[in-house]
Amino acid sequence: MKKFIISAVMLTAIIAPVSSLNADEGINILNDMKVSGEIRPRYEYADVKESGKDAANAFTARTRLAVETNSLLDVSGLDAKIGITAVNNFGYTKYNDGLGQGSEYEKIIDPQQAMLSEAYLSYTALDTTLLAGRSFVNLDDQRFIGTVGWRQMERAYDTVTAINKSIEGLTVLGSYVYGFAGVNSVTTTDTASILLNINYKADDALVLSGFTYLLANYHNTYGLRVSGKTTITKGVKLNYAASYAKQSDPTMTYHDSILINNIPTPTKNIKANADYYDLALGANIDGFIIAGEYELLGKAKGDSTKGFTTPLATLHKFQGFADVFLARTAKTNNDGLIDMSIKAGYKSKEFGKLLAWYHKFDAQTGENKDLGSEIDAVYANKIPGFNSLNGLLKAAYYMQGSVLTSPSNDKAVVWVQLDYKF
Asked: Domain extents for the chain?
């Protein structure tokens, strides 16, 4: 892997001069080269009531640069991409970055770091794409497999992947994941996991997905999802989603132990037995949005030692923006978790998007089921007069439930962000 990363970095450095060279036979080394990038500065404030730590203030910026080319070496269908992501805090360290800096402050998982975030070759023929290397992988609603794009250092996956689209509307993906990196650390986590996803889009009103995710040393997840959106009448649109999944003992293993909360944990004889349910329904009436959702990450059953977990999900999308349930939904969740939420807001091309959520959290079992509640809000819009520049204001306030079972004291988080892509 080290040799692979070094080689990819060297390729990035020589792409510009090489792209203008031709061989004597007239073969183009790089064709249709495209350069893309992103600059995303952000201010984040986090404060937990009576935690014994100071409020955190983080000024960070994500800088991303990627180069991709089509028809590499004049081979039709052979493509390549290399991308680098860097996160900078400009020397402002008044936050706990999760890697040892600022332990006296609240945690904001955006450490200063840089990594090779994309480096892959892909070949497409006969409606099938084969891809090998490092890339971003987001499947369905990212409830199970995602990149955590909200954090400044997005997660990237090292895979060998095959994607087939021979049948109209049907996408079949099979992927062997041998590593992943990002979010809080650029150090690669080795694994030996398998992802299988079948997605069929009949039309906008009906999208079906079936999936099997064999995550080494964690569990096997088997599930189904149906979603869609439709126009009832002029100005009135409905959307819905329903999911069910079940977890069982892991088929795949890697090494004899893994680190859980920095403690070596044996991987042999892991027991997993839990269910997942999700039901969401929403409406958009002339730009006014109203929606409700019920989500259950089930309790541990039988001889299992943990409930339903999703360690490779984009967890920031779920259970509130304050992120107080990250550890529970990624690692243990013994008593299960019920999240009932409502969403309301307004969206238009001129106004932008303004949304607010209310979440009520409860454990599925136990004497003290009250896990608290949360209010979230976000406003996003384009910055007038600047092409490709977007602004965002975002806030979350978690309110503690039972002192014995809640994952956090009251917690407030605020974000101010700009995002420029080119």
From this structure: 2-421
